[in-house]
Specification:
The structure holds 2 protein chains of 2 kinds.
Chain A: E1 7-15, E2 21-30, E3 35-39, H1 46-53, E4 61-66, E5 69-70, H2 76-84, E6 86-89, H3 101-106, H4 115-119, H5 125-137, H6 153-166, E7 171-175, H7 183-200, E8 203-207, H8 211-217, E9 220-225, E10 228-234, H9 240-246
Parallel strand pairs in A: 3-8, 3-9, 6-7, 7-8
Antiparallel strand pairs in A: 1-2, 1-4, 4-5, 9-10
Chain B: H1 11-30, H2 35-40, H3 42-52, H4 60-91, H5 100-115, H6 118-129, H7 133-157, H8 162-169, H9 174-208, H10 216-225, H11 229-257
Helix pairs in contact in B: 3-11, 4-7, 4-9, 4-10, 5-7, 6-7, 7-9, 8-9, 9-10, 9-11, 10-11
The chains are: A alpha/beta, B mainly alpha.
C-alpha cells in the first residue's frame, strides 16, 4: 500500500529552556486508520510527544507533518486549520464544568467559524445537530442539557470524546484518557475510542500507562524512554522482554 | 527523658511593647491631646443624639429625590466602571496575556488608580466638572474600575487551564479561547463583584455628596451646617434602611451566583 502517512516526525527533538531534553531525535510515521499506543514511564516524554503533534508544545529541532503539511512551519490561520483536523482528549477531561454538555461539545466546532461569529456564540443549527449526533455516538444523548460537572468522570470523558468528534478530525490524540477512571469506565471509554477508530477510520494516537490495555486495543506500540523512541512495532511483536526494557533503565532494545 | 525546656524570654517583644507605649504618650503630648476635654464635650454628643432621635418626618418628602439621585449615581458609576474593568482585567491577567511588559505596565496603572482615595477623586472632579452628580458618577466609575478590575483579574488567574488547552487544540484563536474557555468560568464572579461594588458605591455616594458631588450627601451637609440634627437623624435613618435593603438583596444574589 502506498498510502501517505497522516503523521510524520522527521528527526524531532525538544529541549526545554532549562536544558532538559524532552524528545530526542524521533522519527515516526503513522498511517491513516492506525490505533497507535505510546507507552513508557511517567516523565519519559509521552505527553510531550502528543502535544508536539498539534503543536501545543513547540519542538526545537526537526519537522512534523500532518497529512503532508508541516505544522512546525505553519503560521497563524494555517496552524489553526491544521489543529482543527486533530481532536484531543485529556486525562482531566478539560471540560468547562459550569457549561452544559452541549456547549462543551459545540466548542469542537470553533475552528470552522470566523471570529466575530464566535464572539457572539452563533453556532449553526447544523452544527448543533452535529454535536448531538456525536453525543449519541458516545451514548450520552440524554445528558445534552446537563451541566458538565453533574456527570461522572467516565461520562465527562465521553463528552470530551464527543467534542473531539464534532471537529470531524482525521486524527484523535488521547493523552492518558483513562488514567483517572475506574476499570469499568476505562473499558467503556477505550471501547468508544476503538469503535471510532474502526467505524470512522479516524487515526488514534494514545498514551497509556497500562501495557495490558495497550495490547488489548492497540494495533501498534511505540515505546518511549527518556525522550527516545526505544520500540516501534505491531502489538504482537512486543514481548515481555521488550516491554520490560521500555519500562526500565535497562539496555537498549531494538524495534 | 529531658524536661520540657522553659519558653525563651521574648525580650524583643517586650522592647517593642515599651517603645510603642512610650511612642503613644509622646505623640499624644506632641499633638496636644486633651483627654478631659473629650469627656467634657461628651455632653454635647448626648444633646445631638437626642435631637437626632426625634427625626423631622416632615422633611421626608424633600429627601426622596436626592436619595434617588444618590442611587442613580451609584448605578451609573458601577455600570461604567465595570464595563471598562471587564476587558481591562483580561488584559492584565497573566494567563491570558503572556507578554510580561504589557501585563506589568497596565497592572501598574490599575494599582495607581486604586491608590487614589475616592474623596480626593470627588474633590478633583467637582473642581473639573463642577458641583453636581456628574462629578459623583465619574468618581464612582473610577473607584469601581479599580476595585472590580483587581478582583476580576485575580479570579481570571485562578481558572482551570484545562479548557483553554482543549479549545486551543480544537483550532481556536485567542478571542475564541477567551469566549469559550475563560468567560464561562468567571462570568458569575464578575457579576458578583459588580454587585459588591454597587453595595459599596451606594454607601460611598452618600459621603461624596458631602463634597458637592450630588445626591443626598449635599442635603446631609446642609442640615449639619444648619445644626438641624432632627433632619440629620431622618437622613441617617433613611440611608440606613436603603443601604440595608440593597446589601441584603445583593448579598442574596451573590450567594446564589457562586
Amino acid at each position: 500500500m502506498q498510502a501517505k502517512p497522516v503523521i510524520k516526525f522527521d528527526h524531532v527533538s525538544k529541549t526545554y529552556p532549562n536544558g532538559a531534553k524532552g524528545l530526542k531525535d524521533i522519527d515516526l510515521e503513522i498511517m491513516p486508520g492506525e490505533f497507535v499506543v505510546v507507552v513508557g514511564l511517567s516523565g519519559a516524554g509521552k505527553s510531550t510527544l502528543m502535544r508536539a503533534v498539534n503543536r501545543l508544545h513547540d519542538i526545537t529541532a526537526g519537522d512534523i507533518q500532518i497529512d503532508g503539511q508541516s505544522i512546525t512551519q505553519a503560521k497563524g490561520k494555517q496552524l489553526l486549520e491544521i489543529r482543527r483536523n486533530i481532536g484531543m482528549i485529556f486525562q482531566n477531561f478539560n471540560l468547562v464544568k459550569r457549561a452544559t454538555v452541549l456547549k462543551n461539545v459545540l466548542t469542537g466546532r470553533v475552528g470552522y467559524y470566523p471570529t466575530w461569529k464566535m464572539v457572539f456564540g452563533l453556532f449553526s443549527k447544523a452544527d448543533k445537530q452535529r454535536a448531538y449526533d456525536a453525543l449519541q455516538q458516545v451514548e450520552l444523548a440524554d445528558k445534552v442539557y446537563a451541566r458538565a460537572d453533574e456527570l461522572s468522570g467516565g461520562q465527562q470523558q465521553r463528552v470530551s470524546i464527543a467534542r473531539a468528534l464534532t471537529q470531524e478530525p482525521k486524527i484523535i490524540l488521547a493523552d492518558e484518557p483513562v488514567a483517572s477512571l475506574d476499570p469499568q469506565t476505562t473499558k467503556h471509554v477505550m471501547d468508544d475510542l476503538k469503535r471510532i477508530n474502526q467505524e470512522l477510520g479516524i487515526t488514534v494516537l494514545i498514551n497509556l500507562h497500562s501495557v495490558e490495555l495497550a495490547q488489548t486495543y492497540g494495533t501498534r506500540i511505540i515505546g518511549i524512554r527518556d525522550g527516545e523512541k526505544v520500540f516501534d512495532g505491531p502489538v504482537v511483536s512486543a514481548d515481555e522482554a521488550t516491554i520490560a526494557a521500555i519500562y526500565s533503565g535497562g539496555e537498549e532494545t531494538n524495534g | 527523658m529531658a524536661e520540657l525546656p522553659k519558653k525563651p524570654f521574648a525580650w524583643q517583644k517586650w522592647v517593642l511593647g515599651v517603645v510603642m507605649v512610650v511612642g503613644l504618650i509622646v505623640s499624644a503630648q506632641a499633638t496636644g491631646t486633651n483627654l478631659p476635654m473629650f469627656f467634657q464635650n461628651f455632653g454635647q454628643f448626648t444633646i445631638i443624639f437626642q435631637q437626632m432621635l426625634a427625626p423631622d418626618w416632615s422633611y421626608t418628602a424633600y429627601v426622596i429625590d436626592p436619595l434617588i439621585e444618590t442611587i442613580k449615581m451609584a448605578i451609573l458609576g458601577t455600570i461604567i466602571g465595570s464595563v471598562l474593568a471587564f476587558p481591562y482585567a483580561l488584559l492584565v491577567a497573566r494567563n491570558i496575556v503572556t507578554n510580561k511588559w504589557v501585563v506589568g505596565i497596565f497592572r501598574f496603572i490599575l494599582n495607581v488608580i486604586r491608590t487614589i482615595p475616592d474623596l480626593l477623586l470627588a474633590a478633583i472632579f467637582v473642581a473639573i466638572v463642577g458641583i453636581g452628580p456628574v462629578a459623583g458618577v465619574i468618581t464612582l466609575a473610577i473607584f469601581t474600575f479599580g476595585m472590580v478590575g483587581k478582583l476580576f483579574y485575580e479570579a481570571v488567574e485562578t481558572i482551570d487551564e484545562g479548557p483553554i488547552e482543549a479549545i486551543k487544540a480544537a483550532g481556536a484563536g485567542k478571542l475564541e479561547i477567551i469566549r469559550f474557555a475563560v468567560i464561562p468560568q468567571v462570568s458569575n464572579y464578575f457579576v458578583s463583584y459588580v454587585l459588591y461594588a454597587f453595595e459599596i458605591n451606594v454607601r460611598a455616594s452618600t459621603v461624596l455628596g458631602y463634597l458637592g458631588a450630588g445626591g443626598i450627601g449635599v442635603f446631609l451637609q446642609r442640615a449639619l451646617s444648619q445644626f438641624r440634627y432632627d433632619r440629620v437623624g431622618l437622613m441617617v435613618l433613611v440611608i440606613f434602611v436603603v443601604v440595608l435593603v440593597i446589601d441584603y438583596v445583593s448579598g442574596k444574589l451573590r450567594e446564589a451566583l457562586i
